[in-house]
Write a structure and sequence with these properties.
The chain contains twelve helices and no strands. The chain is mainly α. The protein has two domains: about 120 residues, Ferritin, CATH 1.20.1260; about 150 residues, no CATH class. Helix 1 runs antiparallel to helix 2 and helix 8 packs antiparallel against helix 11. The longest helix is centred in the middle third of the chain and has 30 residues. The chain is elongated, with a radius of gyration of 25 Å. It starts with a helix and ends with a helix. The relative contact order is 0.10.
């Protein structure tokens, strides 16, 4: 029983922490739909806290650092990602609630509410970052595939990090503008998104990836070590973006990550081979 009460205190602390976090976020949001969703979840968390308090007979303080961190994440990476990330621990909590409900029947209601938060309410959130996820994927995927391939080819053909970096940058800027134009035309034809914003997301994403991938060539004179670092950075970008999008959209991480990584590495390998052929053909 003593261990159970300790667990309930811990859960009680989580509930009051999440109540404050949801409440704070709901007050910042202008969108009426999202505000309503968060207020609903916040009310549930407070009810959960009070229910658990009736068992422990104690007032528990929230985790202030957790509130700060998730509030910061919501500002930088978006509301949906922050809340879905926070809910990743819910399956374990639901299991513990289930075990405790055998001794404390009143806890059963919490199980239903926590499941509803994940499967219903959070999936109702609407956010611009996710609405334009397709445009971001377009810029990200094309930049990774095209530029890692081009840099691999340039590495063997040119053998000079400064020339490779400049070539990659020129190619990247031209491609970013081209991709932005394609994004604009695609969104305009589709008619479901703002064409200018779609173009902006696509172009900026492409350009940011370009800057990251050419950086090793600007910082080193060793062409092959620069290429290796560039490929590692490409994999890190793929992992980071896929973690973001799969968490926010409740998708599986590994299939998407492996697919994007394999495509980028295969194209880089083929381009490296083309660079080798060009080198020996033109005796560079």
């Amino acid at each position: 029983m003593k261990g159970d009460i300790s667990d309930i205190r811990s859960m009680q602390r989580n509930e009051i922490t999440e109540y404050i976090l949801y409440s704070k976020l709901s007050k910042k949001i202008k969108d009426k739909h999202n505000k309503s969703v968060l207020e609903h979840i916040s009310d549930d968390e407070l009810k959960h806290y009070n229910l658990l308090k009736s068992i422990t007979k104690e007032e528990i303080k929230p985790k202030k650092f957790k509130i700060f961190i998730f509030n910061l994440i919501s500002i930088i990476l978006g509301l949906t990602f922050a809340l879905k990330l926070m809910e990743l621990g819910e399956p374990a909590s639901q299991q513990r609630y289930y075990e405790l409900s055998k001794k404390f029947p009143s806890v059963k209601k919490l199980i239903k509410d926590e499941h509803r938060h994940e499967t219903e309410l959070l999936n109702l959130l609407k956010e611009e970052k996710l609405e334009y996820a397709g445009a971001i994927v377009l810029g990200l995927n094309d930049a990774l595939v095209e530029l890692t391939g081009a840099l691999a080819g340039f590495t063997l053909a040119l053998q000079n990090t400064n020339i490779i970096a400049v070539s990659g940058l020129v190619m990247g800027i031209a491609a970013a503008l081209s991709m932005a134009s394609s994004g604009y035309q695609s969104a305009k034809a589709d008619g479901t998104k703002n064409p200018f914003r779609s173009a902006l997301y696509t172009g900026i994403t492409y350009f940011i990836v370009v800057l990251i991938l050419i950086t090793p060539y600007l910082l080193s004179s060793e062409v092959y070590s620069s290429l290796l670092i560039t490929l590692i950075l490409a994999i890190i970008i793929i992992a980071a973006y896929n973690f973001f999008i799969t968490t926010a959209k409740s998708l599986k991480f590994w299939p998407r990550f492996i697919e994007m990584t394999l495509i980028s590495l295969i194209i880089a390998t083929i381009s490296f081979g083309i660079g080798y052929l060009l080198k020996i053909t033109f005796n560079i």
